[in-house]
Amino acid sequence: MQSTELRRALDTHIGRLARRKLAPVDVAVIDSGIDASHPDLAGHVHQAFRVQSDTTGTRLVSARMGVNQDAFGHGTAVASIIRRVAPNARLIDVRIVSADEVFTSDALIAGLTATVEQRWKVANISLAASRAVARHLMPLCEQAHFQGQVLVAAQRNLAIEDDGYPAAFSSVFGVTAKDIRATYEYFFEDGAAIEWQAAGEKIPVAASGGGYTLKAGTSFAAPAIAGICALVLGAFPRLTPFEIRTVLKAHARAATPSRPHRGSRTHAHRGKLHHFEIRRHGS
């Protein structure tokens, strides 16, 4: 039997939610950091963290608020998409990437562990790790799902051996990119390992350090879905991740089989995750 809140959500036009006064929803951006001084993001980053590694391990520690802690612009771009889609999103900056554009699998695990422990309602993970790392990520993703958190992750831009993790987990909203112009338009591909398709071509985003640029790739499609989830939760906070999936599916357009999209690529290799900007726009 459907809950009253679920029935109301199914009858609500998602795009119109952005014009309503909604409850704030915490959205963790597990990425390269956020430029919290950018005009589009200033005042909207509620907490900031960075990974710290030493002889005792890798953990998340508090970072300075209101400053630019983005290593190379990826996280700022992602955060600006989330805010554009969901004005009620309260951003949590979880920087797991170093200034030399490298992050370890330990950093990713530390960022996801903190997200689960803090119970931030939505998390966006615009990167993809290999199957070797997946066994460490799976229990964290399942724990998040069962305690009511929504995890959204980008498919690997260039399929090597798999779609990338955590996007390939059933407990995660896996997202690929499609050439879409409307802000709240997205597609659902029934039966696909990566079910969701969102705008991922020539996406205008905030640039670290100020100004704007264009980006492409699955990294910039995932935050559109994360933003939509934050919108829905802002209006209907008691929905479970399964119910949110039901709502998004009901409002989605039916997708044709997806194809890999090139753009910003991240993959795991010998225990480390390297970020590659395959194609740059507007810079």
Question: Can you put this structure into words, describing what you see?
Answer:
It contains 7 helices and 15 strands. The termini are far apart. The strands form 3 sheets. A 10-stranded mixed beta sheet has the order 3-2-4-1-6-7-8-10-9-13, sandwiched between helices. It has a single domain, classed as Peptidase S8/S53 domain (Rossmann fold, 3-Layer(aba) Sandwich). Mean pLDDT is 88; it is low at 260-283. It has 283 residues and is of the alpha/beta class. The chain has helices spanning 4-10, 14-17, 74-85, 105-118, 131-146, 222-235, 241-251, and strands at 25-31, 45-54, 57-62, 89-95, 102-104, 122-125, 150-154, 173-178, 187-188, 196-199, 203-206, 212-215, 253-254, 264-269, 272-277. The protein is 28% helix and 27% strand.
SSE blueprint:
Elements lengths: L3 H7 L3 H4 L7 E7 L13 E10 L2 E6 L11 H12 L3 E7 L6 E3 H14 L3 E4 L5 H16 L3 E5 L18 E6 L8 E2 L7 E4 L3 E4 L5 E4 L6 H14 L5 H11 L1 E2 L9 E6 L2 E6 L6
Parallel strand pairs: 1-4, 1-6, 2-4, 6-7, 7-8, 8-10, 9-13
Antiparallel strand pairs: 2-3, 5-15, 9-10, 11-12, 14-15
